[in-house]
Amino acid sequence: MADQNDRPDCEREAKLLREFAHDIRTPLNAMLGYTAMMAGEGGTKLSSDQVYEYAGVVNTATRRLLEICERALDEAVKGQTVVHVEDVNFTAFCIELVGTFEKDAEDHGVRLEYAIADDFPIMRTDPVILYEIMTNLVSNAIKFTPRGGKVSVRGEVNYREEALILVVQDTGKGIPSTILMSVMKGQPATMTFAHTHRKGWGQGLLIVQEKVKQLGGELRIESAANGGTVACIHLPKD
User: What are the start-end ranges of the H helices in the chain?
Assistant: First the structure.
């Protein structure tokens, strides 16, 4: 029988493994989707410019996957969360983000777009954690938005709160209040929408909530006035 003293370590390792498996799906799915098109799957015929563009997306997804793996190994060795702060151009980051999810959004019949405020500054944050946060939110938004809908990513500045606001908004069915309350309390929850027949939100939002705190920020989620969900990440401006 395992020693009771080993249980916290086992639970932590299981949690890290769950998060790792969850975080690597986005770059792996991007790599799989774009390489399938480059290989001509389904009779797809690409121009040389398209091959060049898709190769760039695959290269970027591969680098992100490597960063996530290296971070997981670093945290496993140190036994604690690792945060490396550096300059991040959020406009360039969003261009990469949209490229990563472009095929997924197209397959779901969802329009994906971004808009960054002109006065949005260079961020000082951890790009690996930011990538994990934003990919979780965008992936969920696309998954639960019906065909013909829209997912938008925005970057705004709130000078009154001295905060940077990162927004992921969709035109889906929204998150039921009971599910949202459970998740925001740190409790796992799932839901299924008829148009997707897929479950989700719970694990992804719990990961996002924890990682936003690691960046010294706050996650706020609410229903949009015209339907859908608005996820706002408030991060310190300086």
Answer: 7-23, 25-38, 48-78, 90-107, 127-143, 177-184, 202-214
| Domain co-membership, 227 together with 165 | yes
Residue 78 C-alpha from the chain's centroid: 25
Lookup result for tokens 């563009």? 53
- 112 and 61 within one domain: no
Domain end, chosen from 31, 61, 82, is at: 82
* pTM of structure: 0.86
Q: Which domain holds residue 39?
A: 1-82
Q: Do 78 and 155 sit in the same domain of this protein?
A: no
Percentages helix, strand, coil for the chain (3-state, rounded to 5) are: 50, 20, 25
Q: Are residues 211 and 146 in the same domain?
A: yes
- Alpha-carbon separation of residue 228 from 53, 97, 222, 223 (angstroms): 32, 21, 9, 6
In this structure, the chain runs to a length of: 238
The whole-angstrom separation of Cα 172 and Cα 139 is 13
Dump pLDDT digits (tens) for 168-208.
999 987 776 666 666 666 655 554 444 444 444 456 788 89
Distance of alpha carbon 196 from alpha carbon 144, whole angstroms:
7
